[in-house]
Design goal:
Nucleotidyltransferase, domain 5; 3 domains; 5-stranded mixed sheet; 13 helices
Length: about 425
Amino acid sequence: MSVVRPLGPSSENTRSAILDLVRSSGTVSRIELAEMSGLTATSITRFVKTLIDAGLIIETGYGDSSGGKRPSLLELNRGARYAVGLSLDDARLSYVVTDLGGSVVGRLVSRGIAGAAPSDVIARIAVEVGQVLSELSIPLDKVVGIGVAGAGLDIRGGGEGLSVTAAEWESFAVAQALEAQTGLLVVRDNDAACAALGEFWVGRIPATQDFASLYMSNGFGLGLMMGGALVRGSSSNVGEIGHMPLSLDGPDCWCGARGCLEMLAAPRAIVARALVDSELTADLGLTQVGGDSRQAFERIARAAAGGEPRSVALIEQAARAVATAVLAVVNVLDLDRLYLSGPGFAEIGEIYAREIRSTLTRCARTRAVHGVRVELSDPGLDAAAIGAASLALQHVLTPHVNAGRDALAPAGAR
């Protein structure tokens, strides 16, 4: 099986930028593409022809006439290519298969990676990827690749201690191993970055619109999109909002700092406060076996979503800490849009959104200039997996966003 690779630099970057304009526009004419890109009509016609010949875009009817011939409209040929997205998690592996536009055409959920050797999990992933593609009758030559989302620092930057649950996965070359097993291109990024990219691709957000995506699972991460590309930083580790110190006298964090957001407001911190209340612990049937707080947090979240006052108070306390961290990010980056995504927000995302909106409305430095839209992510629990599929689509089909920086390489995962 051959590995699909991006097509190359220079004119290919221009072609990919035009493809991205078609993606974000939904339907668009050649005249509109020329106006948006600044290219001549002749150049647009030439590049559009190559995209049609490659089967990536199609003509789909005609627009309104402005006095002459009615312009033909272009849109993505969604069934031309597919991508697989995988979210690595202790509790479960979440797979999605998306078409060229990022719409989900298939899903698969299997047991997580907790306690399993990386080599064994990779072998299982290869089998499960083949299973879901076979069930959808999608041939490998129409799959651009596999995107993998996982938590923690990028070890290309020399990071150690990717997460409190990393174990053997810290130094394991996920992408290389999976590529060897499947014959498909594999690219990897952290779950917050993938969630942001998924919003960009699936939501048809134009490259001119910057935004951030706050992702909550066991901890917090922030994905930042600017100019149609993920912002990565000097070691590809932008977005470690979970380790923003909010209280210099707060509890010690495993990262070495004190009073980090993660120690004050992550799901396990909420569970720890709940367990102090013996009556609440009994009422909700809370347990925390082996340090795993996932199930206990889900019970608290469901209770809070149902209006149970003690659970609501716990979530609101955490949400205030999250809002404080978000305020700092908004003030530094002058953001006007934020998405909340990930399993931590699944049941009680609106409580967090409400607290964040309130804090930004009262305290954002630019509140008199512009507001900040805070929205819950549509993909919900699948946000990271959908974003991982978008990562593969963008890496192969719109290489202009990777110009000037190294291609994504394998890294560790939670």
